[in-house]
Every structure is written in structure tokens, then in C-alpha cells.
Design goal:
This protein has ten helices and no strands. It is mostly helical. The termini are far apart.
Length: 250
Amino acid sequence: MNYDWSWGVFLEPSLDGSRDYLQMLFVGAGWTLMLATCAWTIALLLGSLIGTWRCVSSKPLKLVATIYVEVFRNIPLLVQLFLWYFVVPEFLPRSLGLAIKQLPHPWSAFWLAVLAMGCYGAARLAETLRSGIESLPRGQLQAARAMGLNEFQCYRHIILPEAFRIILPPMTSEMMGAIKYSSVALTVGLLELTGQARSMADFSFHIFEAFCAATIGYLVINGAVSQGMRLLERRVAVPGMIGAAPKGEV
């Protein structure tokens, strides 16, 4: 292979001349972090609700949660993103649909990508939480009910705090997945890290350098998330359950 490597390309001005390519990639990394953080927040809140509904005694709530999980988990994220971006605004009230379309670039693409990734992540997190709840001994719920707590109080004070401690390792994978899935936002015009790398490759003709930089960016971001969550796992692990127990409790 005869390829002219040039790492100095990162300090060359980008097409618009306002910044160099390295600054472009940092801006893209910022969009990636903001998109993944907002989507993960929605996924955590909504997924916690849906995952709990999957386990409660109410049959209507179970049915709603099951339909949600099956719909959002079984459709590819890219298809969901296109539906949110191209179809959903057409079915909203006219004023709201126009307001979304007229948001300054790239906020329209950003918020619709947040919703798409958040709803998709919520379905996956709900199933993870359900597995965590079902792994707990049934006697805990029965003992809590015997103490006079209603079902909501049982889940709020006893079941969910312990279930979340158990599912921290798979939650880490979901969080890292949200960062990687954010690259699909490129398809609706949001230039996050992958988008900026592609833009750099198109205009500078240094494809390998651009995507090497994007690769390192994802490795650094996900490595930081992984190490942070590992520290949290060690701090809150349930002795005898999944994950390493905190020192002194073994």
C-alpha cells in the first residue's frame, strides 16, 4: 500500500477556515458526549419505569411494558431514528411539527436523535432491570409486604435499590453502547465524532488519519466510562452477588 501519511493534517485549517481539523474532532467528541448523556438519561428514567412494570402484579401495566419492549427492541435503531426524524414531526400538531423542523441546525437532528436513542435504550435497559429484579430472592418482596409496605413502597425502598446494584455491569455496557450508537446521528446531519471524522476525510483526503483519530476518541471516552463504572461497581457491589464485593465485606 502506497499511502502518504501526514499527521500534521490535524493542524491544517478546515474547509470553513474557522478552526483546524483537530478542533473539529474535539467539537464532534463534545456532540457525542452530549448526545449519549441526554439519551442515556432518558433511557435510565424510562427504562426503570418500564422494567418495573414488567415485574409488578398489575396485568395492564405488564402488557403495556411488554408491548413497549417488543416494539422498540425489535426495530433497528437506524430505522427508529429515521422514523423520529422524518415521520413523527408530520403527525404532531402543525405548530409543534413546524417548531421542531425550524430549530437551528443541528438542534433539530440532535433532539430527535436523543429521543430515538433514549427510547431504544429504555427498552434494552428495561429488560436488564427485569432480569436483575427476577434474580432477587422472592422472599424479599414477601417479607416487605408482610411488614405492611404496599407494592410501590416495596419496589421503591427494597427491590429497585438492590436490583440496580446487581445490574451495574450490564448497565456499563449499555452506557458504552449509547456512546457508540451515537454515530448513527450522522445520517440525519448531526456531525458528532464520526461525522466530523468523515468530514475531515472528505475534505483533506487523509482518511486513515481521520478515522484513527475517531477510533482513539471512542477508546478514550469509553475507557473513561468503563473505569468510572468499575469503581462504582466495587463501591456498591452486593456481597455474594454479581460483581466484586467492597473490601472488608468479603
